[in-house]
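2024-03-11 09:14:02 INFO receiving multi-entity request
2024-03-11 09:14:02 INFO entity count = two
2024-03-11 09:14:03 INFO echoing inputs for audit
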Amino acid sequence: MMFRKFALAGIASTATLFATPAWADTLIDNVVGITINADGEVERFTGLVISDDGKVRELVKSGDPRPGSIDYQIDGEGRVMLPGMIDSHVHVMGIGFGQLTLDLSRTNSLEEALGAVRNFAEANPGRPWIIGRGWNQEKWGLGRFPTAAELDAVVSDRPVWLARVDGHAGWANSLAMSKANVTRASTDPNGGRIIRDPAGNPTGVFIDAAESFINAIVPEPRPSDRDVALHKAQDVLLASGITAVADMGTSVEDWQAFRRAGDHGSLKIRIMAYANDVKTMELIAGPAPTPWLYEDRLRLNGIKLYLDGALGSRGAVLKQPYHDESDHHGLALLRPAQLRNLMSRAAMDGFQTAIHAIGDAANAEVLDAISELSETYSGDRRWRIEHAQIVDPDEIVRFGQNGTIASMQPLHQTSDRLMAEARLGPDRLGGAYAWRSIAAAGAPLAFGSDAPVEPADAFAGLSVAISRTDADGEPFGGWLPGETISRDVALAGFTADGAYAGFADGRFGRLIAGERADFILVDRDPMLSSPQDIREMQVLETWIGGERVFENK
Amino acid sequence: MMFRKFALAGIASTATLFATPAWADTLIDNVVGITINADGEVERFTGLVISDDGKVRELVKSGDPRPGSIDYQIDGEGRVMLPGMIDSHVHVMGIGFGQLTLDLSRTNSLEEALGAVRNFAEANPGRPWIIGRGWNQEKWGLGRFPTAAELDAVVSDRPVWLARVDGHAGWANSLAMSKANVTRASTDPNGGRIIRDPAGNPTGVFIDAAESFINAIVPEPRPSDRDVALHKAQDVLLASGITAVADMGTSVEDWQAFRRAGDHGSLKIRIMAYANDVKTMELIAGPAPTPWLYEDRLRLNGIKLYLDGALGSRGAVLKQPYHDESDHHGLALLRPAQLRNLMSRAAMDGFQTAIHAIGDAANAEVLDAISELSETYSGDRRWRIEHAQIVDPDEIVRFGQNGTIASMQPLHQTSDRLMAEARLGPDRLGGAYAWRSIAAAGAPLAFGSDAPVEPADAFAGLSVAISRTDADGEPFGGWLPGETISRDVALAGFTADGAYAGFADGRFGRLIAGERADFILVDRDPMLSSPQDIREMQVLETWIGGERVFENK
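2024-03-11 09:21:47 INFO inference complete, emitting structure
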């Protein structure tokens, strides 16, 4: 950072010179500062002092005298300062590769998507595969899955493979299926399904575990591709005001890319990583979680497990059959004993466990497992349930037990609400995206985006969290508005509680003395703005560890 | 280190206080200092100044005035100071696991070995497998390989698996073979051989690639086992005065253990790593060699390739048949095109290549490949040939070309000489362990031990390098004594040239200003002692980066 130069004048005037060497401390003054404080409450301040080690030295409150031993001073010009946003559920490399592949998430119809595929293929003649993601037949109002034949009509000379918006389904053209030797005779794997026509022929969409038919033959990215993707992802996140993330399902290749960036000094963002399986967890970290590396920028906290799929693709495991598919309960990805064995394997070496559970049956299963495991693995475990979208209302109280953390994504609520109504019917929504109830039960809410499934937009997340309305303000008054939460809890969910959920409390997440000086300067006060205005909030600057890493010019 | 404390008095008296903060510089005075200097020549000194960053600030020569700005002073008490030894060919984890498993390298007969196996099994009742290494039927004078039946007589209730001293053969008991489903019907893999009786039944010894029958079923060590092994290896090396090593054939699990030690601050020794295959190299380092990590303690330089096996197990590839097996030329592990493809794959991304070549045909093949590759991959490549034991005398001159480095192990010469005479006959030894001729051709000699194949004993290596006699002084006058080298070249081979061979020149390997202060204090002067006395040299202290990491108490 520009302010690190040895400060001659400062030294000469510093009384403590001979006890400890003095360095350059910087005051950012004249800000509308907002943070969660040590008591978990919102606190306001007008200035912040960064010590030379990149940590917060102290906050300045309105009316306080100017702090001593300041070597540099920056005028905040009255801008709003917030702690850096923490996104507690992202797929870092997915965000990065999303930047390098075809993004269909903004398409509003099948025709629009097919046009985008054609254009992308023409614009990238050298790519042996056309890879993309983000389609959503629900958003298109298609009423069915798209087909390989539809893709063939726009690209038939190269394999095409497009992930659904939630990552739980993939759409292939015929050449991709042919290269993967998928035929009528191919059988559905455990935890997966090949969509077929009435005659039994695969039609081009592969659900959950069946995606591996095609994934297995997609060329692996080179390490240099991964490095590019990581830096793209970092750029996206820093520009969005996100200074730390939980990476859900880190592969060893991902981890090595993180380390390369750390080793070369180009890792700016903080990554709390959760390995994608036990083997990877062990290979990365060995007999215990890694230390915090690169000045609190990287740690392998534990493991991510998948217990079920997604609601959109009907992979989420429900207690009662799907309202819109009456013979189907979803697809469990782990048997109860497998879940407990994997959780034990992690817990015995002090690793944290983050378990994807979307359906009410899956959430019940995880809560059971946490309860059982907690008898053996006591202490501060911070069991994380990822998504916790559909919970039996009778079981919400259990989120307050055993230190369970609810890692939830507000934007999923607005994206999913119509689909959730279709999947569950009107009578089974009492525990859907139930933020207020879960918080009331005592579980910390760690908020995230699930990017690239949703945009990594914490401000949209804040807006939804307090309103349960979408970008168009729909539905008026909010969807199941009893589950909105206060602005304070929402801000904590995207800052302090996200750090807590990743064992980073005390290191970052709050602007309090001794934590890393990770903050953003924005153009409005989220505690005073309307939900719609919060969505429009602009990041002016992003700082991590006392260094400015993004500036909106 | 004990001298790092902020030096109040030093600061107060230092004129440069306000320009740059002054730290503690340490003078180690009154030593008999010896190093290779910047001109590649032996230079003597009487004192060494370590700057606070752990580098050499300056050498003090006899008659020089006392250097200025010294905060601490240590009396060397007239002891001999050498650069830390660099062992250019070790298997770090092999050394460590060797400390944790049965060591048969000092057994002098089959009976002695069987007794050791029995004792080890009794002493370790909880181990599900009895794992060991170091046997040598040649040393035992057995005249044949040992058998499973002989092992069964001492341990039959648990599988036993014992690696030969050179790692190129393994000896199993019947239970291990049965667990591995090895039967009469098992066929020899490419590059490997199952030793059989006249009826075709496997007798218990597996050569080279055939070792994988058993290796595949040996339980993998846990990461915590690896961490213990690494620290055991480090202890052995530091106590031997070795401050840096080239690790030949680093697996990703090995690398992660190195990183864990680095991340926790417990990695003292410097490791120049060579990955065990392309996939590992890419996974570890991505698109280019890693930076130097942990203050020059770890770097992935490139890849280790095996072109042939060992002479003892008749895996080395010879131009003419083995003298003692007239229908056998050895076992090539890579085809010529494979070798070139792998070398290209590494070179295109700037990785260094270290190729195991023992037989004269293998060395010729590598020299051909280097010559061809050098046309495409120009610049400072430092192609390494590992072992280069048997070279066609007509081809030795080619070691001076294309920057080829000969990474050789003096102790192999004394251990192997009788075996080499048997394998090659008396008329084909002209290019055997031909240090002087290879150096005369212009190739740097990087000396090592191949530990745990031989002990990590650089002083024994120095002794052999200048004498070509073994611990008993045999044979009188040295074996093929024309290939002895000077003390200066031998010292460089275990210090400066070892650093050069790992792209570490300028970082460590010499005691010159700006390089890391890696040195040892020993009890005699290797430039003046007899070869037998050099073998007895004692390490009194080992220092790395200006910190004492071993003291012989």
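2024-03-11 09:21:48 INFO post-check: Chain A has 18 helices and 24 strands.
2024-03-11 09:21:48 INFO post-check: Residues 231 and 266 of chain A are 8 Å apart (CA to CA).
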